[in-house]
């Protein structure tokens, strides 16, 4: 991973999580989260309901905590990398000032050492970026599992046969009656379950 791609902004993190949740929509006939501002009034006669994943991600406390944690780790990694890059640049600048006064063999050895350091720095950047991406993927999977497991239990308890996900601009649902939106109820349940898990 190039240094410029190491940065994982909060928007990118949110987009990645929304994408993971939306792409998993057919797994176990459940889907990623969703949300609504009003209480759901769906009855068990309705066999298919949906949740709004955009709303879920802004109101599910686990996701908020996860985003905060990943953002902090990303910022720490960026700060660490920037510090190492600045130290290397200072070393290069110092060599450039002195190179004309150094013997040829010392210049050659210094240039070799700086070239090795540059390669090590690039490897460090790539490894740090890969580690962040791997952790993000792992956390995304945990997020999906939490939501999917809750929705499986929720749907079974309510007698629903399918729970779809809706996300603005990235959804197979072109229209659904708002009475089928169970997002608010799902968010309340997810947040209660998360609060209980933290105790």
Topology:
Elements: H1 10-23, E1 48-52, H2 53-59, H3 61-98, H4 104-158, E2 162-166, H5 183-198
Parallel strand pairs: 1-2
How would you concisely characterize the structure shown here?
By secondary structure, this protein is mainly alpha-helical. Helices cover 65% and strands 5% of the residues.
How does this structure look, described?
It is a single chain. This protein has 199 residues and is mostly helical. It is built from five helices and two strands; from the N terminus they run αβαααβα. A two-stranded parallel sheet has the order 1-2.
State the helix count. Answer: 5
Q: Fraction of residues in helices? A: 55-70%
Radius of gyration: 25 Å
Number of strands: 2
Question: Distance N terminus to C terminus?
Answer: 38 Å
Strands side by side in the biggest sheet = 1-2
**Order of SSEs:** HEHHHEH
Question: The biggest beta sheet, please?
Answer: 2 strands, parallel
What structural class do the secondary elements suggest?
mainly alpha
Question: Which labels suit this protein?
Answer:
disordered N terminus; mainly alpha; 199 residues; 5% strand
């Amino acid at each position: 991973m190039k240094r410029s791609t190491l940065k994982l902004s909060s928007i990118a993190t949110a987009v990645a999580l929304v994408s993971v949740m939306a792409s998993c929509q057919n797994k176990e006939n459940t889907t990623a989260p969703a949300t609504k501002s009003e209480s759901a009034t769906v009855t068990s006669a309705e066999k298919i309901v949906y949740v709004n994943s955009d709303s879920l991600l802004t109101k599910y406390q686990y996701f908020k905590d996860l985003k905060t944690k990943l953002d902090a780790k990303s910022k720490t990694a960026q700060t660490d990398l920037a510090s190492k890059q600045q130290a290397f640049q200072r070393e290069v600048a110092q060599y450039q000032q002195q190179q004309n006064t150094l013997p040829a063999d010392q210049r050659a050895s210094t240039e070799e050492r700086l070239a090795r350091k540059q390669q090590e720095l690039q490897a460090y950047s790539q490894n740090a970026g890969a580690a962040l991406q791997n952790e993000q993927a792992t956390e995304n999977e945990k997020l999906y599992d939490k939501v999917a497991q809750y929705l499986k239990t929720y749907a079974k308890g309510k007698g629903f046969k399918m729970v779809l996900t809706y996300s603005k601009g990235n959804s197979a649902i072109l229209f659904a009656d708002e009475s089928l939106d169970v997002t608010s109820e799902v968010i309340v349940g997810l947040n209660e379950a998360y609060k209980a898990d933290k105790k």
